[in-house]
Amino acid sequence: MPVREMAKVVSNSPVKPGYYLMELDAPKVTEEAKPGQFVHIRVGRTMDPLLRRPISLYDIDKEKGILSLLYVVVGRGTRMLSEIEAGAELDIMGPLGNGFWLPDRATRCLVVGGGIGVAPLLPLIGMLDQAGLEQKILYGFRNADAVVGIDVVQEKGWPLAIATDDGSVGHRGFVTDLVKQAITDFKPDYYYVCGPEVMIRNVVWLMKEANIPGQVSLEARMGCGVGACLACTCKTRKRTGGQQSVTGGQLSVAGHEQNFDYSLVCTHGPVFGAGEVIFDD
Amino acid sequence: MPVREMAKVVSNSPVKPGYYLMELDAPKVTEEAKPGQFVHIRVGRTMDPLLRRPISLYDIDKEKGILSLLYVVVGRGTRMLSEIEAGAELDIMGPLGNGFWLPDRATRCLVVGGGIGVAPLLPLIGMLDQAGLEQKILYGFRNADAVVGIDVVQEKGWPLAIATDDGSVGHRGFVTDLVKQAITDFKPDYYYVCGPEVMIRNVVWLMKEANIPGQVSLEARMGCGVGACLACTCKTRKRTGGQQSVTGGQLSVAGHEQNFDYSLVCTHGPVFGAGEVIFDD
Amino acid sequence: MTRPNLAVNLGGLQMKNPVTTASGCFGFGPEYAPYIDLNRLGAIVVKGTTLEPRLGNPGVRIVETPAGILNSIGLQNPGVDHFISKALPYLKEYDTPVVVNIAGNTLEDYAELAKRLTAANGVAALEVNISCPNVKKGGMVFGTDCFMAAEVIRTVKQHTTLPVIAKLSPNVTNIVEIAQGVAEAGADALALINTLLGMAIDIHTRKPVLGNTVGGLSGPAIRPVAVRIIWQVAQAVNLPILGMGGIMSGEDAIEFILAGATAVAVGTANFVNPRATMDVLEGIEQYMEKYGVKDINELVGAAWK
Amino acid sequence: MTRPNLAVNLGGLQMKNPVTTASGCFGFGPEYAPYIDLNRLGAIVVKGTTLEPRLGNPGVRIVETPAGILNSIGLQNPGVDHFISKALPYLKEYDTPVVVNIAGNTLEDYAELAKRLTAANGVAALEVNISCPNVKKGGMVFGTDCFMAAEVIRTVKQHTTLPVIAKLSPNVTNIVEIAQGVAEAGADALALINTLLGMAIDIHTRKPVLGNTVGGLSGPAIRPVAVRIIWQVAQAVNLPILGMGGIMSGEDAIEFILAGATAVAVGTANFVNPRATMDVLEGIEQYMEKYGVKDINELVGAAWK
Ligand SMILES: Cc1cc2nc3c(=O)[nH]c(=O)nc-3n(C[C@H](O)[C@H](O)[C@H](O)COP(=O)(O)OP(=O)(O)OC[C@H]3O[C@@H](n4cnc5c(N)ncnc54)[C@H](O)[C@@H]3O)c2cc1C
Ligand SMILES: Cc1cc2nc3c(=O)[nH]c(=O)nc-3n(C[C@H](O)[C@H](O)[C@H](O)COP(=O)(O)OP(=O)(O)OC[C@H]3O[C@@H](n4cnc5c(N)ncnc54)[C@H](O)[C@@H]3O)c2cc1C
Ligand SMILES: Cc1cc2nc3c(=O)[nH]c(=O)nc-3n(C[C@H](O)[C@H](O)[C@H](O)COP(=O)(O)O)c2cc1C
Ligand SMILES: Cc1cc2nc3c(=O)[nH]c(=O)nc-3n(C[C@H](O)[C@H](O)[C@H](O)COP(=O)(O)O)c2cc1C
Ligand code: FES
Ligand code: FES
After folding, report:
1. Lowest-confidence region among A37-51, B133-147, B255-269, C235-249
2. How far apart are CA D113 and CA D100, in angstroms?
3. Which residue among D65, D194, D229, D248 is best mutated to probe the pocket of ligand 4, counting the most ligand atoms within 8 A of its Cβ?
4. Which of A150, B215, C96, C217 has the highest CB neighbour count under 10 A?
5. What's the mean pLDDT in A214-238?
6. Is D25 annotated in the active site?
7. Residue B185, by phi and psi: left (phi above 0), alpha (psi -120 to 50) or beta?
């Protein structure tokens, strides 16, 4: 069950300009945390900014009860977060969302990330590794300055290839180039993807062409983070028959005439089966 | 001319629980600052809280360009102010208001303060001292825990008497008791008073009885601090004839039928001739 | 000392304390069960419910504004039958009355909703939403027209034995008039206020941020408007009021009660603080203790009484 | 590169840039002269002016609310004659058009104000306040009634040759209707929005905080409401709009312009930041530069055009 916890900020420092790594002493949230889940953070104490900010779990240290977050400053909420000093208390809710799940039958997983979207993939990679699955990791970034979240991957020697738009690191071009190649070379039978929506969409399209199932982790503007406000929707294929029970945290909408549902990124997701999501063009 | 300055916080620490002394490196504001003036402070950076907070000048070090403020935490604005750390930048406007002026002819001044209202009196006392005027200082506080702003006064050996409601320091009772006594003993021919409104009113009444002129420093809820919003009014006797010119910062209201004006605490004050102010009961 | 009385009667709805949830801000209840004990709420007001399931509005549905949020959810909900069969059984487990917020496109919709929910076992009251700014048909159109507002309430009253709370729109010139209209039509209580109509434009895309263009403004930003409306209506109309609009703390709730609210609903605050309802309740208790208030009802409208 | 064009024409009022001051938030000008160069403003709109001097409201006149303020100044001002003889000569020294905000109790008041200010040398336009929530007579009563609003504007137009800007109240059900009414009556431009009606209660004294009980809510809290109103009115009424309500930055101003405002006024922001008008102006310039906008007029209503 998710909780609200006053976490202690253990550290909060830039890993490169604009990108921060924050470590939180949050034993309660950590205890139940799974790869792909997120915390919902109150970055200030006054009425402005009002809403919490969702940030994925970048590392989950169950032994020490420490969570790590990797985030980029894009607006004033993340800026305020970056200004919080070690020793301060941070009001977080979590772990939220469903998280990644292991594939039923697959053995060779492609893990694709773009930009800050690589953050939730680190614990996933660890999970896949532990489950003994083969994996290949493909990350795309704008340029060398935007390359983040690869240290641990490299340390552990997990197989990683990088693409940057300008070629300043790794392959010059999009990560989808690497994906195409991996489909032939690596022959994955499953995949995971997280990153900018357009990248996710392209990867999903390529994998669908290749008939490979997988999971996508989405973002949406959030209010509550717990399924109560119905703000964080994404379009999903209409489920036939069964409804999620109310005690599961939310009701999905069935019985209407459209051929899609609005699912909630905060509780039905952020991770969805790749086949479930409908991407509008 | 008042300015807006990004002042550097030199220090900001409690002098006793709930009471803080803040030193600001603010050369521009300090340059023109006079006793009785105030600065208008932005305590946060977001839209909540929105308004600035007015705080009097407790010490003006023209040589070093350093201003000191003495303040008590009463709400969230002052709480936020108290949490600002040395080294931070603080957005201030000042010096604002008219400040105390020297009496025309008087030679023996009674200086009366109550609670945190003693803050603006310290630079006044210095000014009176320098002008070679006799003075007697009477401060009233709730109890020993609320006694502040006396260190410098004591250091300099200026004649100070204290009253506390519970007698934990000095005279047991109100500062007005000391005022009554001083009227007979010290025989002041002028006075200055700052503190809670009810105290000011009682002091003004006593002095009026004794036919002694003086000045009062008032508080009011402020918006702009510069005479633009007309929020910070107090009732004053209607001025006959001449109006303040518009370039003086504001227009007073004449020609109406009531026998009083609303004057602005921020620019006509905060210091008023005691005879000008009308206290409602 | 005997414990002070917190129980209030909101037009026939008995509440053990004056704190409830604002419709649409608390899901159907279970969403906040990990954070608070739902048994401690004075009542639970659930998300706006319609006859048929509704998908809600497309695109971005929420945007943060200074001390507030704009939402354009558009009444996404699984429909009344699903509510009765799936959500209600869960809620009945709690010792807390369930208030269902209902919205329709037509008078017939409201009539049918009232019928089905009255027949269902476990609904304590109906909150009639004639003020939703986020739907094209019905919604606010009913709420800004005095005659129509009264018609909706009259219709609902004809089809239910439950207490009927009329939830009004603040986006009107004269809310007192509308409150009087629904009072005459038989409303048992008033819910004030729904969201203010607002919008935000993304200066980079140069398009409205919300998928539905306009949305409802809620949160602390609107509190002064809510307090003013409750103050005005409470003095003019002899009906108990469920007050809401930016309540974040017990002190805010006391402000609403002093203005004339018999009970308060916590909405947007839940998103900020999942324990907001409990913090509000405890804050009310602390205030009563501090000032020796023995019965919360003494404070209702005390700022003008 | 040639400098982008910032000049706008607000219904006959020529402004060198779209940034002006909101009435009542900038005194008569000199108050902010220590902080900014008044010559750089597109126009100066001064405090609401009445025929006779007014004392304004008693008691507390301002209270801070979440991301906003409530004020109940009540049109304290020295009267139009004093304005003309004392304030206007000072303002004429600047290379910035002066707009006088006028308020009356009666149609005759408005007529007389228009006459005297038109005769006075140095007034560039009249902003007609039919929306002040802080006075008993006139004020908002005019602004919430479509017929009366139009009457006031018609009267002013009959007595002046200056551009007439009608300043409307947001506290109405249908602002488009009122905007259309004043447009037909001859208004040259619209000013949107005046403050929202709000109030605050002191929970310790259990009395309203403001001496006048209710007050006008301004500041960033109301920005979403202002943007929505401008968006609605701009599309329905063919008059240039002076937009205001919570503008704190150039980005906020751009939002208003995209919604349909030809010029913007900075109000409450001055209290927070005495250089707010200049920051807004510079922010607009930066935005234009970033996106290569050559003429600010291209952005007016660009979110819906
Ligand atoms: C499930 C989830 C996990 C995320 N994990 C990470 C992470 O690990 N690292 C990271 O750097 N970022 C992550 N994000 C994105 C992050 O939440 C936004 O960058 C952040 O909320 C922006 O806030 P701001 O105040 O700085 O920006 P502003 O643009 O000022 O924010 C304004 C509003 O928009 C919302 N918003 C803005 N951008 C986004 C976005 N991309 N997604 C959702 N809401 C947004 C904000 O929450 C806020 O309500 C995640 C988002 C989601 C939904
Ligand atoms: C000219 C002047 C000089 C002052 N000098 C000092 C000083 O030297 N030391 C000191 O401790 N205090 C001083 N004060 C009082 C100080 O400004 C208030 O205590 C402070 O603004 C309270 O802010 P808050 O957010 O903590 O309280 P809150 O009660 O949360 O404030 C809410 C609002 O009320 C206003 N407000 C609250 N109390 C007062 C008050 N007493 N006077 C005016 N506005 C108030 C605030 O500015 C704010 O807008 C002075 C006030 C004035 C007008
Ligand atoms: C996300 C969201 C959804 C809402 N849904 C509904 C609804 O379905 N029915 C309704 O009557 N009011 C709805 N409201 C309005 C709230 O119940 C409440 O009246 C309003 O938000 C003001 O209270 P607050 O400021 O505490 O949120 C909704 C508000 C929000 C923020
Ligand atoms: C202290 C104060 C005084 C005001 N006085 C007037 C006035 O005299 N005439 C008028 O038309 N509007 C007056 N207004 C309204 C403003 O001009 C403006 O419409 C409103 O505050 C919204 O803009 P803002 O949020 O930028 O302040 C006043 C507002 C404030 C805050
Ligand atoms: S954020 Fe509220 S439902 Fe997802
Ligand atoms: S605070 Fe604005 S006039 Fe004094």
Report:
1. B255-269
2. 10
3. D194
4. C217
5. 96
6. no
7. alpha
Residues B208 and B122 in one domain: yes
A85 and A164 within one domain: no
State yes or no: pLDDT of B259 exceeds 90: no
Look-up: residue for tokens 């000013």?
A: D191
Domain of residue B203 covers 108-219
CATH number, domain with residue A39: 2.40.30.10
Instruction: Give this prediction's pTM.
Output: 0.96
Name the catalytic one among C38, C132, C164, C244: C132
pLDDT in tens, B53-98: 999 999 999 999 999 999 999 999 999 999 999 999 999 999 999 9
Residues A92 and A141 in one domain: no
B234 annotated as ligand-binding? no
d(CA B226, CA D31): 6
Q: Is residue A272 a part of any domain in this protein?
A: no
In the structure, what pLDDT confidence band is assigned to residue D145 with cuts at 50, 70 and 90?
Answer: confident
* Residue A224 located in a structural domain: no
- Going by alpha carbons, the residue nearest to atom 17 of ligand 2 is B54
Asked if A82 and A145 sit in the same domain, the reply is no
Find the CATH number of the domain harbouring B156.
3.40.50.80
| Phi, then psi, of B10 in degrees rounded to 5 | -80, -45
Q: Partners for A (CB, 8 Å, 3+ pairs)?
A: B, C, D
Residue where a domain terminates, one of A191, A219, A247: A219
Q: Which protein residues touch ligand 3 with a CB less than 6 Å away?
A: A 223, 229; C 22-25, 47-48, 71, 73, 75, 101, 129, 132, 167, 194-195, 216, 218-219, 222, 244-247, 266-269
Superfamily for the C8-56+74-197+217-299 domain = Aldolase class I (3.20.20.70)
- Average pLDDT for chain D: 94
- Position B70 in a domain: yes
**Does A246 score more than 50 pLDDT?**
no
Q: Does residue A14 lie within any of the structural domains? A: yes
Residue D221: partners with Cβ closer than 8 Å, 6 or more residues away: B47, C65, C66, C67, C68, C220, C221, C222, D65, D66, D67, D68, D246
Co-location of A28 and A75 in the same domain:
yes
pLDDT at site D132: 57
pLDDT tens per residue, range B7-41: 999 999 999 999 999 999 999 999 999 999 999 99
**Average pLDDT over every residue of B137-150:** 97
Can you give the pLDDT at residue B257? 62
Helix axes C107-119, C146-158, angle to 10 degrees: 30
Identify which of B23, B60, B71, B93 to mutate to test ligand 2's pocket (most ligand atoms within 8 A of the CB): B71
Q: What domain count does chain A have?
A: 2
Say which of C144, C199, C259 has its CB closest to residue D231.
C199
Ligand with smallest separation from the Cα of D264: 4
- Residues flanking ligand 4, CB < 6 Å: B 223, 229; D 22-25, 47-48, 71, 73, 75, 101, 129, 132, 167, 194-195, 216, 218-219, 222, 244-247, 266-269
CA B85 to ligand 1 center in whole angstroms:
29
Q: Which pLDDT score is estimated for B238?
A: 80
pLDDT-derived band at A250, boundaries 50, 70, 90: very low
Domain boundaries, chain C: 8-56+74-197+217-299
Does B26 share its domain with B68? Answer: yes
Q: How would residue C260 be classed by pLDDT, with cut points 50, 70 and 90?
A: very high
| Model pLDDT, residue B251 | 46
What Å distances lie between residue D43 and D114, D169, D192, CA to CA? 19, 22, 16
Chain A residue numbers touching D66 (CB-CB < 8 A): 47-48
Q: What span, in angstroms and rounded, lies between the C-alpha atoms of D38 and C225? A: 34
Ligand nearest B262 Cα, by number? 6
Q: Same domain, yes or no, for B67 and B45?
A: yes
From A202, A219, A236, the end of a domain falls on A219
d(CA C264, CA C287): 15
DSSP assignment of C64-78, as one string?
EETTEEEE-----B-
Kindly state the tokens that stand for C203.
């200066």
Give the DSSP H/E element, type plus range, for residue A137: strand A134-141
Cα B69 to ligand 6 centre (Å):
21
State the pLDDT confidence band at D143, using cuts at 50, 70 and 90: low
